[in-house]
Write a sequence for this structure.
C-alpha cells in the first residue's frame, strides 16, 4: 500500500503554486510600502511560550496544539500561530534596543489539531504582520489600511471588515463579571463546552457556534458598554481614523477572538463565501503580551491572514501561469542535439523554452507544444539545420514565418514583447 500524506495537511501542487507565489509577492510588496520588514522564526518553540501568550483556557492550548517531547525530554510545540514566536524573538534579540518601534511581517506554516473541513486544516499557512511600540489609534488605523490595501491589491473583494474593542485589564474584569452573571442565569441551556467556559473563559461563549448558545446570548451585555474612559476614547479615535481613510467597517461587539492576549482593538476580515470558516484575516492589539513574555512594556498590534482561505477566494479568477515563449520541435536525432543546445542558450538569455526529448512525430510534438500553451514553435529538421533557418509558428493564430537560427533570440524577444 502506498504511503499517503497526513489528514488535514495539504500538498500545494504545481497548478496552484502560482496563486501562492502571487499572494506572497504582493505581501512583500505592500507590507514594504508601510515600512514592515520580514522576520523568519522556527516552526518549533517551547510549549510554555504558547501557554503563556495564547492562554491556558483557550481551545488552541487546551486541545489543538501539536506538542511532544524531544529526545532530551523538553516539551516542544509546533507553532499554532505567529505572534508569540515573533514577540519571543523580538525580546530575545533585544530588537527594542535598536528601535522601540518595530514593524515586522512573516509567512509560513502553522499547526492546529482541528477537525479538517473546507478552509480549516491542521497545517495551514499565515501571512501576518505585527507593529510594536506605538499605542496611538493611528497605528491601529494604519495596520487596517495596510490589510485593506493588500486585499485590494490581490483582487479579493468579497470580504468585509469587522472591528471591536475588548478593553484592558482595567475594564475587562467588570465586563467579565457582568457576563458571568448573565450566563449563570442561562447556564442550563448552554452546551457542555460553554458550561465549562462560563468559569474558564466566559467571553468565548459569545463565539460558540451551537444555536442554543447563540440564542441564549443574544441579549448578553456588550463589552463596548463596559469600556473604561481610556479604551472607549481609543476605540472612538480608531473609528474616526478609519472613516477619514474611507475604509468601510462594521462594529461587532460579539467578536471575542480565540486568543487571550488581546486588549482594546480587535478585528476580523470576514467573507460569506467560505461557510463557517468565515474569517480570512484576524488580529488586534496586544498591549500586555510583550511584558507578559518577559520583555519591556511595549504595546503591539497585528494580524494574520489564512493563505488557504485567500487561495479559495482567489480561485474564482486564478492567476495564469507564465506561458513558454517557445517550443522546439526537433525532427531526428541530429536536430534534437542541436535544439537541446539552442534551448539551453535561449534559457540562459532569460526565455522560457521547452522541448520534447523523445524525438516523437511532428504531430505528437505539436500536440505537446499546445498542451504546454507555448506561444511559438520552431520546427527544426536536418534541412533547416543545413539552411540555417527554420519555420517559426505562432501557436495562437497558426501563422508561420521563416527565421534565421542566428537571429532567433532577437526575433523571439521582439515577438514576445509585442504580445505581453
Ligand atoms: P487567528 O484568528 O487564530 O489569529 O488566525 C488568523 C487567521 O488564520 C484566521 O482568520 C484564518 O484565516 C487562519 N486560520 C486559523 N486557523 C486556521 C486553520 N485551522 N486552517 C486554515 N486557516 C486557519 C492568530 O493566529 C493571531 N496570531 C493573529 C494576530 C496577529 N493577532 C495579532 N497579530
Amino acid at each position: 500500500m502506498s504511503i499517503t500524506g497526513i489528514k488535514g495537511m495539504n500538498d500545494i501542487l504545481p497548478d496552484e503554486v502560482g496563486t501562492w507565489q502571487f499572494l506572497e509577492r504582493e505581501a512583500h510588496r505592500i507590507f514594504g510600502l508601510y515600512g514592515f520588514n520580514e522576520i523568519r522564526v522556527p516552526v518549533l518553540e517551547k510549549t510554555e511560550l504558547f501557554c503563556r501568550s495564547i492562554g491556558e483556557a483557550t481551545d488552541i492550548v487546551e486541545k489543538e496544539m501539536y506538542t511532544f517531547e524531544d529526545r532530551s525530554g523538553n516539551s516542544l510545540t509546533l507553532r499554532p500561530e505567529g505572534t508569540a514566536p515573533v514577540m519571543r524573538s523580538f525580546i530575545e534579540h533585544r530588537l527594542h534596543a535598536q528601535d522601540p518601534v518595530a514593524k515586522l511581517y512573516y509567512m509560513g506554516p502553522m499547526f492546529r489539531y482541528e477537525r479538517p473541513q473546507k478552509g480549516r486544516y491542521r497545517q495551514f499557512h499565515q501571512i501576518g504582520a505585527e507593529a510594536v511600540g506605538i499605542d496611538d489609534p493611528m497605528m491601529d488605523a494604519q495596520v487596517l489600511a495596510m490589510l485593506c490595501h493588500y486585499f485590494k491589491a490581490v483582487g479579493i473583494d468579497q470580504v468585509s471588515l469587522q472591528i471591536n474593542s475588548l478593553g484592558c485589564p482595567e475594564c475587562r474584569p467588570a465586563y467579565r463579571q457582568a457576563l458571568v452573571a448573565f450566563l449563570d442565569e442561562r447556564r442550563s441551556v448552554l452546551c457542555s463546552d460553554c458550561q465549562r467556559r462560563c468559569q474558564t473563559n466566559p467571553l468565548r461563549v459569545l463565539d460558540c457556534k451551537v444555536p442554543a448558545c447563540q440564542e441564549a446570548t443574544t441579549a448578553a451585555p456588550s463589552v463596548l458598554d463596559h469600556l473604561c474612559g481610556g479604551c472607549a476614547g481609543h476605540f472612538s479615535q480608531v473609528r474616526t481614523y478609519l472613516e477619514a481613510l474611507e475604509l468601510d467597517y462594521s462594529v461587532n461587539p460579539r467578536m471575542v477572538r480565540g486568543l487571550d492576549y488581546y486588549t482594546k482593538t480587535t478585528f476580523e476580515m470576514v467573507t460569506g463565501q467560505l461557510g463557517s470558516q468565515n474569517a480570512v484575516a484576524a488580529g488586534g492589539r496586544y498591549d500586555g503580551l510583550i511584558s507578559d513574555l518577559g520583555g519591556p512594556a511595549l504595546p503591539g498590534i497585528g494580524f494574520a491572514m489564512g493563505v488557504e482561505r485567500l487561495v479559495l477566494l482567489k480561485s474564482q479568477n486564478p492567476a495564469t501561469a507564465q506561458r513558454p515563449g517557445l517550443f522546439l520541435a526537433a525532427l531526428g536525432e541530429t536536430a534534437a542535439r542541436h535544439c537541446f543546445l539552442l534551448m539551453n542558450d535561449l534559457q540562459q538569455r532569460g526565455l522560457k523554452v521547452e522541448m520534447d526529448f523523445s524525438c516523437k512525430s511532428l504531430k505528437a510534438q505539436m500536440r505537446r507544444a499546445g498542451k504546454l500553451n507555448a506561444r511559438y514553435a520552431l520546427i527544426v529538421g536536418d534541412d533547416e539545420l543545413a539552411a540555417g533557418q527554420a519555420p517559426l509558428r505562432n501557436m495562437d493564430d497558426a501563422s508561420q514565418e521563416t527565421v534565421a537560427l542566428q537571429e532567433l533570440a532577437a526575433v523571439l524577444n521582439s515577438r514576445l514583447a509585442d504580445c505581453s
Remarks:
- The mean pLDDT is 95.
- Residues 81-83, 112, 114, 120-121, 124, 126, 128, 130, 258-259, 279-284, 302-304, 306, 308-309 surround histidyl-adenosine monophosphate (CB under 6 Å).
- The longest strand covers residues 102-111.
